[in-house]
Amino acid sequence: MQACGLRDNMDDLKKAGVEVLGISTDKPEKLSRFAEKELLNFTLLSDEDHQVAGQFGVWGEKSFMGKTYDGIHRISFLVGVDGAIEKVFDDFKTSNHHDIVLAYLKSV
What we know:
By secondary structure, this protein is an alpha+beta fold. The chain has helices at 2-8, 10-15, 28-37, 51-55, 97-107; strands at 21-24, 43-46, 59-64, 67-72, 76-79, 85-89.
């Protein structure tokens, strides 16, 4: 849902000067199949070894149904042209992620 919301709103994101990159801990082959199946119009990058996730602080302990495990936290970053993080989006659902990002972009 999150990726498709970004895909479907790409024109508005581009108008705002945003280049979308998705990063996942899935293998490149799985990401490639997903991108093809969902007709994604942005790049998905693989971070199998969690190096990028670790550097951004989004890999760590999670819990689900009473079980604790390590996993990726669903967080998005808006990185400025200077490479600095401009905004962290950490309060959204997969279904409204694009709306949250677009609302922020319209407010700045």
